[in-house]
């Protein structure tokens, strides 16, 4: 078993702008799940998600991922 500090990680950030930003006050979790799951199939692990909103309307989700560096 390896420890987290024993691995060299690489990180990437994806900014998902929601399609219905001004017409829907609820977060589109299906859209967000799709992006997260697409990255998971490429071996990226989600580290954090930050939702930005304007006047109570979700605008985008900033997703940070990590995966083990190859090599």
Brief digest:
With 71 residues, the chain is α+β, with helices and mostly antiparallel strands. Helices cover 17% and strands 44% of the residues.
Task: State the main characteristics.
44% strand; single chain; 17% helix; alpha+beta; 71 residues; elongated
Strand order of the largest sheet: 1-3-2
Distance between the termini: 18 Å
Low-confidence stretches: none
N-to-C order of helices and strands:
EHEE
Helicity level = 10-25%
Task: Give the overall pLDDT as a whole number.
Answer: 87
**Overall shape:** elongated
- How many beta-strand segments? 3
**% residues in beta strands:** 35-45%
For this structure, the quaternary state is single chain
Rg from C-alpha positions? 15 Å
Overall structural domain count: 1
**Largest sheet, described in full?**
3 strands, antiparallel
Number of helices: 1
What is the SS-derived class? alpha+beta
Describe the fold and architecture:
It is a single chain. The protein has 71 residues and is of the alpha+beta class. It has one domain (4-68). The chain has one helix at residues 29-40; strands at residues 9-17, 45-54, 57-68. Strands 1-3-2 form a three-stranded antiparallel sheet, covered by helices on one side. The model has no long low-confidence stretch (mean pLDDT 87).
Protein topology:
Elements: E1 9-17, H1 29-40, E2 45-54, E3 57-68
Antiparallel strand pairs: 1-3, 2-3
């Amino acid at each position: 078993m390896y420890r987290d500090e024993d691995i060299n990680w690489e990180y990437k950030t994806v900014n998902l702008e929601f399609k219905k930003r001004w017409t829907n006050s609820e977060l589109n979790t299906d859209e967000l799940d799709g992006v997260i799951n697409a990255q998971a199939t490429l071996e990226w692990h989600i580290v954090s998600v930050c939702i930005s909103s304007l006047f109570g309307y979700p605008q985008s989700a900033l997703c940070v991922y990590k995966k083990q560096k190859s090599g």
